[in-house]
């Protein structure tokens, strides 16, 4: 089932939610945001306003260059990168994440 309402907290919203056509893939994006925060202590997308956050989600790529990312395992980085893939069709599924 495809949904079309913009819902959820700005920091965790998937790009396809902002385009108003999304399914369960959007939940995997949110898990990617949570994993990013848990691993490095900062948000992958940040701005002072909600609209700025939305723009960052649509246009920016999260940084994996600054500490602590270089010291984390390649598997951890790959896990988060695959969850934060802007293309929902290529994003890691729940089954793949397990």
CATH A-level architecture: Orthogonal Bundle
Please, how many domains? 1
What is the alpha-carbon Rg in Å? 13 Å
Number of helices: 5
Keywords: ATP-binding, Kinase, Nucleotide-binding, Serine/threonine-protein kinase, Transferase
InterPro entries: CDPK_Ser/Thr_kinases, Kinase-like_dom_sf, Prot_kinase_dom
Pfam family, one: Pkinase
Domain Protein kinase: 1-98
Written account of the structure:
With 98 residues, the protein is an all-alpha fold. The protein has a single domain, classed as Transferase(Phosphotransferase), domain 1. The protein is 45% helix and 0% strand. The protein has helices at 15-18, 25-40, 50-59, 74-83, 94-97. The radius of gyration is 13 Å and the shape is globular.
Briefly, what is this?
Residues 1-98 form the Protein kinase domain. The protein is mainly alpha-helical and 98 residues long.
Element layout with pairings:
Layout: H1 15-18, H2 25-40, H3 50-59, H4 74-83, H5 94-97
Helix pairs in contact: 2-4
GO molecular function, one term: ATP binding
Keywords: ATP-binding, Kinase, Nucleotide-binding, Serine/threonine-protein kinase, Transferase
Protein name: Protein kinase domain-containing protein
Give descriptors for this structure.
98 residues, mainly alpha, Transferase(Phosphotransferase), domain 1, 5 helices, nucleotide-binding, CDPK_Ser/Thr_kinases, ATP binding, transferase
């Amino acid at each position: 089932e495809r949904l079309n309402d913009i819902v959820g907290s700005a920091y965790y919203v998937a790009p396809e939610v902002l385009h108003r056509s999304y399914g369960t893939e959007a939940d995997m994006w949110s898990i990617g945001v949570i994993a990013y925060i848990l691993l490095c202590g900062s948000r992958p997308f940040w701005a002072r306003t909600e609209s700025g956050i939305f723009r960052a989600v649509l246009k920016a790529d999260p940084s994996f260059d600054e500490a602590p990312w270089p010291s984390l395992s390649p598997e951890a980085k790959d896990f988060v990168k695959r969850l934060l893939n802007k293309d929902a069709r290529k994003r890691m599924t729940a089954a793949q994440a397990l």
